[in-house]
């Protein structure tokens, strides 16, 4: 088996700021990141790419709300499937252009990916992941009666929250494995995968959101990947991030990472899930875990940038 790496690209790789949200803006942002991933291909890695989809799902939900008087609303699991296809299409096009430019005989492909979660996961009784747009109290009351979980968000309005269960199995992992073995670059587990539960032998989509990095770590195990790289908006992991005593970390052991988590260095919903995911990856047999920014991907693989997490 050739050396395999999963590259998880974050939201900054598609939407840089509030002023650049359009499809052309996202395409341009992705086009900046893709060449760094292709560098890994040139270095001999078999690459599977995972990605976030939070803003894009939000856009679909908002369009659905606006069009509610004319068309049916789009269920959350279908929003996930829609964005996997659209973002995959965009990445495929950019990757293929870059492969042709470098005369690399590779083809990209997207797999619409389901991820199994446990219907008894505690997250389903304690939903806390905000999605969609803000609403007034009247709308919030109506939506609550329809079965939505609604919370008030710091005086800014009311917002829907959904569960964020732990991923248990990547349903299409064998498909991804076969494609990698055949030489394809695979885009998969978009947005953490479409969450599904199993009922009487049948899969059923649920209104939930799976953390992309946790699902990516699970994919690493399923594929026997030796490398796991999380691309994010900062060049490396920092202790005391944003404070006057901020300190970059070039390398940390799993033991150190667990201690830093316990000490509260990593924000929940931001860096903490990334650290937890790479810890999981290393403890399940992974060898090379890196957190860095897109432009530092190739350097980070060589040990010249980013943060490496190792066993110990």
Explain what you see:
It contains 9 helices and 17 strands. It is of the alpha/beta class. It has 2 domains: 4-115 and 167-310, Carbamate kinase (3-Layer(aba) Sandwich), CATH 3.40.1160.10; 127-162, no CATH class. Helix 2 (54-66) packs across helix 3 (76-102). The radius of gyration is 19 Å and the shape is globular. The mean pLDDT is 92.
Mean pLDDT: 92
Q: Supply the number of structural domains.
A: 2
Order of helices and strands: EHEHHEEEHEEEHEEEHEEEEHHEHE
Strands of the biggest beta sheet: in what spatial order?
A: 3-9-2-1-12-16-17-15
CATH topology of the largest domain: Carbamate kinase
Number of helices: 9
Uncertain spans: none
- Share of residues in strands: 15-25%
Q: How many strands?
A: 17
The major pleated sheet works out as: 8 strands, mixed
């Amino acid at each position: 088996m050739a050396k395999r790496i999963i590259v998880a690209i974050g939201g900054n790789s598609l939407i840089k700021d509030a002023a650049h949200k359009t499809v052309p803006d996202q395409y341009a942002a992705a086009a900046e990141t893709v060449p760094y991933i292709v560098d890994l291909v040139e270095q001999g890695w078999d690459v599977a790419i995972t990605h976030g989809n939070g803003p894009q799902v939000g856009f679909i939900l908002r369009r659905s709300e606006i069009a509610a008087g004319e068309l049916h609303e789009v269920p959350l699991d279908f929003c996930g499937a829609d964005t996997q296809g659209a973002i995959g299409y965009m990445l495929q096009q950019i990757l293929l252009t870059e492969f042709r430019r470098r005369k690399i005989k590779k083809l990209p492909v997207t797999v619409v990916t389901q991820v199994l979660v446990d219907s008894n996961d505690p997250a389903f009784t304690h939903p806390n992941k905000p999605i969609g747009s803000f609403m007034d109290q009247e709308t919030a009351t109506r939506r609550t009666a329809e079965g939505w979980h609604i919370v008030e968000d710091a005086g800014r309005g009311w917002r829907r929250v959904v569960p964020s269960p732990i991923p248990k199995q990547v349903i299409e992992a064998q498909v991804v494995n076969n494609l990698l073995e055949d030489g394809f670059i695979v885009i998969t587990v978009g947005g953490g995968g479409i969450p599904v539960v199993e009922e009487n032998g049948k899969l059923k989509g649920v209104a939930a959101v799976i953390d992309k990095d946790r699902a990516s770590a699970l994919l690493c195990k399923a594929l026997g990947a030796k490398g796991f790289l999380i691309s994010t908006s900062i060049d490396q992991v920092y202790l005391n991030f944003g404070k006057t005593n901020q300190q970059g970390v070039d390398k940390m052991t799993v033991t150190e990472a667990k201690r830093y988590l316990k000490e509260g260095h990593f924000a929940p919903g931001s860096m903490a899930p990334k650290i937890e995911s790479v810890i999981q990856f290393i403890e399940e047999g992974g060898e090379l875990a890196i957190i860095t920014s897109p432009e530092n991907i190739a350097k980070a693989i060589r040990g010249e940038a980013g943060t490496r997490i190792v066993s110990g």
